[in-house]
Amino acid sequence: MSRKLHPAKFQTIYKIFGFRTQTFLLFSQDIPSQNLGFVDPHSTTLDLNVAGKDYVIHQSPTILNRPGSTTGAVVWKITPLVADWLAASDNPLWTSGVLSSSSNVLELGCGISGLVGLVLAPLVARYTLTDQSYVARLVEKNIDENIHLEKQKQPRSSSQKRKSKSSTNNSKAELRFLPLDWELDEVTPSLTGNDKAKSFDAIIACDCIYNDTLIKPLVQTCADACKLRSADESICDRPTICLVAQQLRDPEIFEGWIKEFSKHFRVWRLPDNASNEELRLNPGFVVHLGILQDVANRS
Questions:
Q1: Residue 264: which of 236, 226, 231, 213 has the closest Cα?
Q2: pTM of the full structure
Q3: Of 100, 189, 198, 201, which residue has the fewest beta carbons closer than 10 angstroms?
């Protein structure tokens, strides 16, 4: 049976600030240039070691350089850092019970790599990657290229093994890609890909905030995905968690996002003592966690 997750659990893990205070504190620190944040904007293939595993990731500098919004065509620096942090057994999301081997996770704006999903999928029950349809071919190629790694289960702590014993029998996690346009498509339970699952335990968006015109559609999609939980009677008392990781580039863009996000969500920020060494050594990246306002207020 799922444990009820109380938002107060995050008080000791995450810091809470108003959006103006957030912007001031984050952008008053010394943020080194990340050259926009690409891992390598020229190579078509990347070899990345994340959470102790070697991934071969195909990307498309050609699509990146086309006119229009095609930033998902290459891997961004924050992606392997967040994937590595999320996979760690001492991550507060695992130790607090937000994530478990029975979790159902939805990622928004996964880009061509699908890297966060590739890393997390072996640790959870189901993982759904979504983005615009132009990334589909390379996402599927990257899934096929790295599918053998899904069988290499990462060890959990003994306490987590006891909690999730019944769900560790599957030798292969479910990982799939579906097209989802934040401005055009409706968020429905069909995204879970399972008739018995009507909602998600966690929503992840990694470095999706770079264009002010997409802030409202992204935040609304996050909110709509989290609202699916209210209709899922078997686990409606366990709120869906929305995790947003991003590189700090423009204070106006960031403030626009945190202001809009705070309209729908109660927001926490990951402090240094809850992150891993890689994130701490790379300033200019930030992780926020949200629970829908009405859910947080009822708890």
A1: 226
A2: 0.86
A3: 189
